[in-house]
């Protein structure tokens, strides 16, 4: 029971919406009707970086595929995040996360990253069975990294396999999710969810015409497809299990699956499968969590079935009508990382990433006035690629972090197959948001 209680407490802290949080002293409180609305958490987190790379700007933008990665030579404001957590009433909590950053063109961008309700109590006492409902717009609970905000990343950029499969902003969108903490003697949680498949945050699914214009998967043309029935959503299933391997080691193993339609036609569909693992060692005599060792990794596989297409490629002048036969494209990749907190406030680590696939791309050949097969080796989102990223971290306090990271990229879509980048990042936190663990 001690193991289950420890893991249960960890799960409750991660949800940011537990009854225990509702019982803390609120930052603001006001009675509304028969209930009391409370603001429990208000914080601002800022992340910025400065660096240089051997890659040209257009290549660097692809190498650093996340919108909150350091993506340009010189200074990058990766994000400023305003987060709020409140108790709507005795039954529901709410979270809101507003992001501001400056893109590569120097334009200011605002986006509501997440805004959702999360139940703390359900009818008929269902919460006693470990059930929790979430509704709104939120990150999809796929794997370990996608559901996290950038300030919870150990490295300064998201793994490139996630950028390939989930896009610049990660996989997220409006929908609903049900979580079930299983009645087992260890931590075991199941998530099932449904979300809209349309938009720039659903690049492997229905996406939109702008996504296909910038990064079509396999070069396939876009066939505008709208929601007609329940088969036109993205569906998630995830199962995560955690165990205590003695007094000093904890581990978690998870599996995730996504299913949904894609934007290539009425019979186009996508399936993404993933497994993830996490192990952490902290000795009994640790000083505020130091020393420690964290090992973490994910492996993903995408099956992208592109439907038949009869129409015009956007590049084709005069709208030459062409036929493109259906095709199944497969892509996969993984990342594995280890972070060692070797002395109080200091840690160092290394991450390795790999991505590749199978199935050729298609393109419109204006000279032949026809569609031709082309190698995926020139496609930055499907070609073979490796990355190695050493990292050094110093945390002067729980609310600040300095990181120095080097990226070595080996790729095929650029004339220069080897690229080198160095990033120095600064992060600070103001407010009552859960701090980075020391």
Which keywords apply here?
single chain, 438 residues, mainly beta, Porin, 16-stranded antiparallel beta barrel, two-stranded antiparallel ribbon, 9% helix, globular, disordered N terminus
Report, as a whole number of angstroms, the end-to-end distance: 27 Å
Put simply, the count of helices is: 5
CATH class: Mainly Beta
Helix content: under 10%
Could you say what the CATH topology is called?
Porin
Number of domains: 1
User: How are the strands ordered across the major sheet?
Assistant: 2-3-4-5-6-7-8-9-10-11-12-15-16-19-20-21
**Strand runs, count:** 21
Please state the overall shape, judged from the principal axes of the Cα atoms.
globular
The value of Rg in angstroms is 23 Å
- What oligomeric state do the depicted chains represent? single chain
How does CATH name the architecture?
Beta Barrel
Q: Low-confidence runs (pLDDT<50, min 5 residues)?
A: 1-23
Order of helices and strands: HHEEHEEEEHEEHEEEEEEEEEEEEE
Mean pLDDT: 88
Q: What about the largest sheet?
A: 16 strands, antiparallel, barrel
- Strand coverage percent: over 45%
Structural category: mainly beta
CATH superfamily: Porin
């Amino acid at each position: 029971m001690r193991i289950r209680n420890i893991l249960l407490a960890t799960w409750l802290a991660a949800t940011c919406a537990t009854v225990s949080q509702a019982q803390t002293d609120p930052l603001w409180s006001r009675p509304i009707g028969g209930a009391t609305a409370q603001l429990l958490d208000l914080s601002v987190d800022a992340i910025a970086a400065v660096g240089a790379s051997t890659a040209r700007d257009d290549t660097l933008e692809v190498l650093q595929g996340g919108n909150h990665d350091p993506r340009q030579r010189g200074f990058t404001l990766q994000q400023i995040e305003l987060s709020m957590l409140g108790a709507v009433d005795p039954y529901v909590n709410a979270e809101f996360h507003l992001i501001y950053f400056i893109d590569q063109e120097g334009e200011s961008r605002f986006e509501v990253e997440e805004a959702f309700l999360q139940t703390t109590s359900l009818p008929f006492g269902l919460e006693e069975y470990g059930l929790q409902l979430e509704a709104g717009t939120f990150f999809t609970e796929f794997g370990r990294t996608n559901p996290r905000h950038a300030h919870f990343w150990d490295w300064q950029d998201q793994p490139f396999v996630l950028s390939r499969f989930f896009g610049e902003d990660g996989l997220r969108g409006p929908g609903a999710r049900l979580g079930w903490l299983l009645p087992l003697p260890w931590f075991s949680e199941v998530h099932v969810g449904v979300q809209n498949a349309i938009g720039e945050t659903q690049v492997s699914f229905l996406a939109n015409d702008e996504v296909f214009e910038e990064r079509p998967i396999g070069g396939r043309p876009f066939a505008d497809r709208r929601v007609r029935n329940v088969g036109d959503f993205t569906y998630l299933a995830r199962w995560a299990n955690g165990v205590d391997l003695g007094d000093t080691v904890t581990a978690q193993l998870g599996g995730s699956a996504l299913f949904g339609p894609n934007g290539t036609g009425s019979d186009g569909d996508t399936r993404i499968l993933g497994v993830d693992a996490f192990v952490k060692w902290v000795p009994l005599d640790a000083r505020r969590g130091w020393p420690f060792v964290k090992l973490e990794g994910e492996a993903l596989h995408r099956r992208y079935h592109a439907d038949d297409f009869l129409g015009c490629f956007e590049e084709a002048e005069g709208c030459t009508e062409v036929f493109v036969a259906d095709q199944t494209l497969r892509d996969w990749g993984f990342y594995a990382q280890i972070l060692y907190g070797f002395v109080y406030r200091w840690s160092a680590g290394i991450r390795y990433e790999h991505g590749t696939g199978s199935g050729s791309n298609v393109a419109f050949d204006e000279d032949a006035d026809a569609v031709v097969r082309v190698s995926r080796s020139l496609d930055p989102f499907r070609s073979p690629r490796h990355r190695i990223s050493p990292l050094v971290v110093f945390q002067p306090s729980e609310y600040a972090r300095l990181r120095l990271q080097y990226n070595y990229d080996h790729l095929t879509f650029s004339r220069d197959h080897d690229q080198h980048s160095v990033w120095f990042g600064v992060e600070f936190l103001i407010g009552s948001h859960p701090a980075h663990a020391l």
